[in-house]
Write a structure and sequence with these properties.
about 250 residues, single chain, about 75% helix, mainly alpha, rod-shaped
Length: about 250
């Protein structure tokens, strides 16, 4: 049963209780009358009141159902927006992984060979976690916190990619050029170390490892979080359609 339908059920229960109390009061009133004639005189009024009550009740139910339908559509739209944002995020990182990490994976010179890229922070894909805060009222509240963590991981990955690209572009490449190091030629590590200095060389090496680690981790965790969210949504709203997606296939 959806969350909105639970509210409708509660509303109907309250209305029924009110009606039962109303009829009980009327019956008590009948018992207290000594003359049946008096009862017959008030019966038409009672019938009118009952008809008015049921009319108002059904109008109330229709209004509740309309609100439930509107709420359901808003929930579905919000959930699919979050799922689509996850799709955009993970495939953006997957493209970076396929183009920049996978061809050099396992290469000891990856920190030198991996070229800088234009800032990915311009393509930051936002989603509003509050759009699925209705899950906090279910057995799947943990997914809301998981999405918050995933949001931080995504931004961290982009920040590290940008940091490493700027380091390579504005500090490493000028020093390599000054030292006469030519791109595409294999040099021993000592050549790069002498050209860059130990501190910059180690910083580039560490930054590159962080890029690989964070991109790999975020691609994997985003898919895992998407699967958890999808399972939760299908349990809370069975029979509804939600966006699903798979990762881009690697070229390797």
């Amino acid at each position: 049963m959806g969350i909105g339908m639970q509210r409708i059920t509660l509303g109907v229960a309250l209305v029924v209780v009110g009606f039962v109390l109303f009829v009980f009061g009327f019956l008590v009133a009948i018992i207290t009358f000594e003359e049946w004639k008096v009862v017959k005189e008030i019966t038409p009024s009672f019938t009118t009141l009952v008809a008015a009550f049921f009319g108002a009740w059904f109008a109330y139910l229709l209004q509740l159902r309309a609100k439930e339908e509107k709420y359901r559509k808003e929930i579905l739209a919000s959930a699919n927006q979050v799922l689509f944002s996850l799709f955009q995020r993970v495939n953006s990182l997957k493209l970076f992984q396929m183009d920049n990490i996978d061809p050099l994976r396992g290469n000891p010179g990856i920190h030198i060979a991996m070229q800088p890229i234009l800032s990915m922070k311009e393509e930051v894909i936002k989603f509003d976690i509050e759009k699925i805060d209705f899950l906090l009222g279910t057995n799947h509240k943990q997914i809301v916190f998981d999405l918050y963590i995933e949001d931080r991981r995504y931004e961290t990955a982009l920040n590290i990619i940008d940091h490493r690209s700027n380091l390579h572009l504005y500090e490493v490449q000028p020093k390599l050029h000054e030292a006469g190091v030519t791109e595409g030629v294999d040099y021993p590590e000592s050549v790069y170390m002498d050209a860059l200095g130990e501190m910059l060389y180690k910083h580039l090496e560490k930054s590159t490892k962080q890029v690989v680690y964070n991109v790999d981790r975020t691609v994997t965790s985003t898919i895992e979080t998407k699967d958890k969210l999808l399972a939760a949504l299908k349990e809370v709203y069975p029979g509804e359609e939600f966006i699903n997606f798979e990762l881009l296939e690697s070229n390797t």
